[in-house]
């Protein structure tokens, strides 16, 4: 691929940028291309373009806006193979997994066609003295969308489709690790009939994110990424008077009660824990085995399943999962394993040092499993964004809930049980934004709200679902009276609070 440029005003845009970065193919470690990093001047240009295009788009009819969303949905379907290849090549996830990601992205695009329904206002007739009161929702203006590397198509589409359906213009800053899919999405939006300048993408790293956070023309920020960056973005964005929603890291606990269907729980654990080389914010990180003997039984079920996993290139049809995103990410995962073992965990399966024949320079981390993980260990405290997972042994449900709630993150948590009472206590008492009962990954469907609690989310909006439409619009409440001319002539008035 040629060097990648920004996408501004409906076309590839080469700025006067003097910085750039390298995009790798994690499957073989090769350099795919160089990517220019936007300067402040490039961002100013994108903001000017988005500002004028956005003003017209905000006044486009709802029918016109939704027509574009419907067409975009169709184009994503028709280009699934191309998008899946772009995802896999830059991110390392398998084609099957990339297609799953696109399927989830489509849910968000489809739900964005409900923008008109969600944002319609309320009306009260004759609240007093012939006055009617109604509310209207209008687009906020330009939305800055800052995306992570792990879902190169899904997260950008989740953020931008509802923002656009609500009448905003967007400036997307994709992850500098995987910018290729966003450039292609820009072309699809254009083909879908979106006016030039409503959807823009600028590439770069922290420097351009900081410029977005300060830019006076950008009204709202939607961020997905790690917690330490999300917290910074939330605080900086708010300090600059922007509306901010930041969806951040997770450490998702899977509680298995002794009465659960252990075979099904074991399969759920392996798929939810290792899929996408565990580079999902909703991946299961820890298996909490509750009660005497449960851990031993689960361990004997999960170990052979994990040993059977095949790790390979994104386009290897036999691969269950692929490489991690960078050589550094591989090193961080391997270090987390070493730290866990040094702290007293038992290394049941060691995936360190995995080499895939023929792809010796790829960033591969094999599946690892640690047992006897405890809350004192960094391995429990930190989000390990790679295929190293742990087993914890707990005596009862009380302790399992206590451990789950003791973690700083509250993105997702699941319980496997046959007890309605245990499940009810779990969903009532666990402080996580997305909960599951006998399901492995409780990411809700596109018409429900997505978002964590505690330090897995900053701000009170949700990324998709009805709440997203509220985030991307501002509300005005209007009180109006249309008196006859002779009624207007009345001169009586009072200074008392009406
Ligand atoms: P990251 O925080 O490193 O990067 C996310 C974005 O922020 C990128 O666009 C990056 O360029 C930018 N960025 C990075 N460092 C920055 C800094 N210091 N200042 C300003 N901007 C900066 O995250 P990542 O590694 O791309 O993605 C993985 C993380 O995202 C994991 O923690 C994962 O749990 C989280 N995630 C969360 C969700 C969710 O919905 N809660 C979804 C997907 C991923």
UniProtKB/TrEMBL annotation:
Highest taxon of the lineage: Bacteria
Keywords assigned by UniProt, alphabetized: Oxidoreductase
Compositional bias of kind Low complexity: 488-498
Gene Ontology MF, one: methylmalonate-semialdehyde dehydrogenase (acylating, NAD) activity
Entry keyword annotation includes Oxidoreductase: yes
Disordered as annotated region, ranges: 482-498
Signal sequence extent: none
InterPro entries from the UniProt entry: Ald_DH/histidinol_DH, Ald_DH_C, Ald_DH_N, Aldehyde_DH_dom, MeMal-semiAld_DH
Residues of the Aldehyde dehydrogenase domain: 19-478
Gene Ontology biological process: L-valine catabolic process; thymine catabolic process
CDD domains in the cross-refs: ALDH_F6_MMSDH
Record keyword Oxidoreductase present: yes
One Pfam family per UniProt: Aldedh
PANTHER family: MALONATE-SEMIALDEHYDE DEHYDROGENASE
Name listed for the protein in its UniProt record: Methylmalonate-semialdehyde dehydrogenase (Acylating)
Organism in which the protein naturally occurs: Tardibacter chloracetimidivorans
Taxonomic lineage from the root: Bacteria, Pseudomonadati, Pseudomonadota, Alphaproteobacteria, Sphingomonadales
């Amino acid at each position: 691929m040629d060097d990648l440029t920004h996408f501004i005003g409906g076309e590839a845009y080469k700025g006067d940028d003097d910085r750039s970065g390298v995009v790798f193919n994690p499957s073989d470690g090769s350099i795919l291309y160089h990517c220019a990093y936007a300067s402040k001047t490039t961002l100013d240009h994108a903001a000017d373009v988005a500002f004028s295009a956005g003003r017209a788009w905000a006044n486009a009819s709802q029918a016109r806006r939704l027509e574009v969303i419907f067409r975009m949905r169709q184009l994503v379907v028709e280009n699934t193979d191309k998008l899946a290849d772009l995802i896999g090549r830059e991110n390392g996830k398998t084609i099957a997994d990339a297609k799953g990601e696109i399927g989830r992205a489509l849910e968000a695009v489809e739900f964005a066609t409900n923008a008109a329904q969600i944002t319609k206002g309320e009306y009260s007739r004759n609240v007093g003295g012939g006055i009617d009161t109604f509310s209207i929702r209008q687009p906020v203006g330009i939305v800055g969308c800052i995306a992570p590397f792990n879902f190169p198509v899904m997260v950008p589409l989740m953020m931008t489709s509802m923002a656009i359906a609500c009448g905003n213009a967007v400036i997307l800053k994709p992850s500098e690790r995987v910018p290729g899919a966003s450039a292609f999405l820009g072309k699809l939006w254009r083909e879908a009939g979106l006016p030039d300048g409503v959807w823009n993408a600028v590439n770069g790293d922290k420097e351009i994110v900081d410029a977005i956070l300060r830019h006076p023309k950008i009204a709202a920020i939607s961020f997905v990424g790690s917690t330490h960056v999300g917290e910074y973005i939330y605080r900086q964005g708010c300090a600059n008077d922007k509306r901010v929603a930041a969806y951040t890291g997770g450490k998702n606990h899977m509680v298995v009660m002794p009465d659960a269907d252990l075979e099904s729980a074991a399969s759920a654990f392996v798929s939810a824990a290792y899929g996408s080389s565990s580079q999902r914010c909703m991946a299961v990180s820890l298996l909490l085995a509750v009660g005497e003997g449960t851990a031993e039984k689960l361990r004997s079920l999960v170990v052979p399943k994990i040993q059977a996993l095949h790790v390979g290139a994104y386009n290897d049809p036999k691969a269950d999962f692929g490489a991690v995103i960078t050589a550094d990410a591989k090193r961080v995962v391997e270090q987390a394993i070493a730290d866990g073992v040094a702290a007293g965990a038992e290394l049941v399966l060691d995936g360190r040092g995995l080499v895939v024949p023929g792809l010796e320079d790829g960033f591969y981390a094999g599946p690892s499993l640690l047992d006897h993980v405890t809350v004192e260990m960094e391995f429990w405290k930190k989000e390990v964004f790679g295929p190293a997972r742990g087993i914890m042994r707990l005596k009862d449900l009380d302790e399992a809930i206590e451990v789950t709630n003791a973690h700083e993150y509250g993105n997702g948590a699941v319980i496997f049980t046959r007890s309605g009472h245990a499940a009810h206590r779990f969903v009532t008492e666990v402080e996580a934004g997305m909960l599951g009962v006998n399901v492995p990954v409780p990411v809700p469907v596109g018409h429900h709200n997505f978002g964590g609690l505690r330090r897995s989310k900053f701000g009170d909006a949700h990324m998709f679902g009805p709440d997203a439409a509220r985030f991307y619009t501002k509300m005005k409440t209007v009180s109006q009276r249309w008196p006859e001319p002779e009624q207007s002539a009345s001169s009586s008035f009072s200074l008392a609070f009406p």
